[in-house]
């Protein structure tokens, strides 16, 4: 199976997992419901991990095809970082969803409603830990940006000097940088989820998947409108 076919099949399975997450009772009212949230979240993260495992093999075999990403719309391509989404996006999703839910919670609280334990109820300790992780992630992103810039300088010099024999190593080095980007994505996602409760984790995963679907749908519509095949 080619990677493009794998990508489409993987995305369909992701959609199915998201639908299951949406149907889970929140907040959980029993240990059984709470364990179900944990199980579904783990399946979701495992599904993402499987994607990066396959992608890592392709980065080693054909990183240029991976960077071209013909399965993406032009709009999706414009948002890509190291052949994927920016790890910083994790915090943007969490903070945006948390703010929306917190504002709703304030209105409900005035009416005497109890806390729901969702992303709108992040504790001060959770917010501090997320902030620390965000700073660490940004630093690692910057390090990878520097590595890519160095690679581009070397590649430019090699093309000018016509060092044909070094092209294979150059491509291997690029594949290594892309794999490091994916490792940072998965590591950031896993660490962020560890700081959240099962309820909050499901809120976050559903919101992240919804954002991904919106970006994909809008990009495909733009390509159709622009006559892009």
UniProtKB/TrEMBL annotation:
Matching Pfam families: DOG1 (PF14144)
InterPro entries linked: Seed_Dev/Stress_Resp_Reg, TGA_domain
Gene Ontology biological process terms, A to Z: DNA-templated transcription
GO molecular function: sequence-specific DNA binding
Ranges for domain DOG1: 1-225
Domain of life assignment: Eukaryota
Protein name per its UniProtKB record: DOG1 domain-containing protein
Protein source organism: Heracleum sosnowskyi
């Amino acid at each position: 199976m080619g990677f493009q076919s794998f990508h489409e099949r993987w995305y369909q399975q992701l959609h199915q997992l998201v639908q299951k997450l949406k149907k889970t009772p929140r907040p959980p009212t029993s240990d059984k419901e709470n364990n179900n949230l944990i199980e579904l979240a783990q399946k979701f993260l495992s599904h993402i991990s499987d994607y990066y495992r396959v992608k890592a093999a392709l980065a080693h075999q054909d990183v240029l095809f991976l960077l071209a990403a013909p399965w993406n719309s032009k709009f999706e391509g414009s948002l890509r970082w190291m052949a994927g989404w920016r790890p910083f996006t994790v915090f943007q999703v969490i903070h945006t969803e948390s703010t929306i839910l917190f504002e709703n919670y304030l209105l409900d609280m005035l009416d005497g409603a109890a806390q729901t334990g969702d992303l709108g109820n992040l504790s001060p300790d959770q917010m501090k830990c997320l902030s620390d992780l965000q700073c660490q992630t940004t630093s690692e992103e910057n390090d990878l940006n520097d590595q890519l810039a160095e690679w581009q300088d070397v590649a430019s010099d090699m093309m000018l000097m016509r060092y044909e024999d070094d092209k294979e190593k150059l491509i291997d080095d690029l594949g290594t940088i892309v794999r490091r980007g994916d490792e940072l994505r998965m590591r950031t996602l896993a660490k962020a989820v560890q700081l959240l409760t099962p309820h909050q984790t499901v809120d976050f995963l559903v919101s992240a998947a919804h954002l991904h679907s919106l970006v994909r749908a809008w990009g495909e519509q733009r390509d159709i409108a622009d006559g892009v095949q």
